Amino acid sequence: MSGTVPRRVSLDFAVEAIDVVKLDAARKDGLLEGYDLMSPFVWEREGKFDLLVRVLPNPLAPSDPTGVIYAGKSDDGLSFAMQDSPAILPGPEDKDAGGVEDPTVVLSGQDVLVFYTGVDRARSQGAMLVAQGPDLTQLAKKEVLLEAPEGEGNIKEATVAQGADGTYRLFYEYARDIRPGVGASRIGMAVATTLDGPWSVVEDPFTVREKAWDNWHLSTGPIISRPGKPHVMFYNGATLDARWRIGWIAFDENFTHVVDRCIEPLIVPPPPELRSGIDIAFAASCVDHGKKIHLYYSLEDRVLRRSTLVWLTPEL
């Protein structure tokens, strides 16, 4: 990241409350019974809330897709009535026949753009794709936006933001082999003048820190952007043994420099409810309510939560 270094700022947040996010089955047989829930993307329009979420069977059979994306609506942002039919299904083309994951919504004029991860039929690679339509019931898959270059893999977990210069940034997670037999996740970034691209990959926006809670893996999370203020990403970080926590990092107006970063994680998951559970909290989306932020995330890759965060920096 280059250019004139801006002055550093001092940010902080506190967790005020944690609530359970409930998905009401649309069918009598229970649409979500026996399924894991991941990547909850929630956004607000005219006082109502929309949701896209990755749904997958538990246990996952060899022939099951790695994810199907369902949609829901809510009055309060906590209890969602789910649509009976998926918003995005795998296939039929090879590029996403293995599963569809990690939805991220960008509103563009009258259309909804959904950036999502497509897992290929062989389940050997994930790429960034996009679906577009006037609403969540009329989404049409467009094209592959970003594929992994040589030596990298599994482009996923899109986060889209616009800089003060008007250009767009596409943050994404990618797989990187940093030691034989031991891979790691990193956060990459691509730049484009329009949401349709073309997207040009640039230098990674930040990296891991030695002897910290995010010393091995990184993955993208949602961004809060306010005019004239630092952009804040609630990102996901982990150690070598994949103990994932949620922290935050702040950028200048055009994402050229990091101006602040948390020392300790903001959200640490509680002990897993089941002995088979995994130690992971993973942020997916947020809704900005001024002094407070509603952060949506998954626990154990199976249940959904919403944290209410409070800004501790008065001028922001």
Commentary on this structure:
The protein is an all-beta fold and 316 residues long. It has strands at residues 13-20, 22-24, 35-45, 48-57, 68-74, 79-82, 99-108, 111-119, 126-133, 140-146, 152-162, 168-179, 182-192, 200-202, 217-219, 223-224, 231-238, 244-251, 258-261, 281-289, 292-299, 303-311. The protein has one domain: 5 Propeller (Tachylectin-2, Chain A). The radius of gyration is 18 Å and the shape is globular. The two termini are 24 Å apart.
Determine the strand fraction and express it as a percent band: over 45%
Portion of residues within helices: under 10%
N-to-C SSE series?
A: EEEEEEEEEEEEEEEEEEEEEE
* Termini gap: 24 Å
Number of strands: 22
**The CATH fourth-level homologous superfamily:** Glycosyl hydrolase domain, family 43
What is the number of domains? Answer: 1
Task: Classify the secondary structure makeup into a structural class.
Answer: mainly beta
Largest sheet: 5 strands, mixed
By CATH reckoning, the class would read Mainly Beta
Please report the number of helical segments. 0
**Unreliable runs:** 26-30
**CATH architecture label name:** 5 Propeller
Sheet with most strands: strand arrangement: 2-6-5-4-3
Shape: globular
CATH T-level topology? Tachylectin-2, Chain A
Keywords: Glycosyltransferase, Hydrolase, Transferase
GO molecular function, one term: hydrolase activity
Organism: Novosphingobium hassiacum
Protein name: Putative GH43/DUF377 family glycosyl hydrolase
What order do the helices and strands come in, and which of them pair?
Layout (H helix, E strand, L loop, with lengths): L12 E8 L1 E3 L10 E11 L2 E10 L10 E7 L4 E4 L16 E10 L2 E9 L6 E8 L6 E7 L5 E11 L5 E12 L2 E11 L7 E3 L14 E3 L3 E2 L6 E8 L5 E8 L6 E4 L19 E9 L2 E8 L3 E9 L5
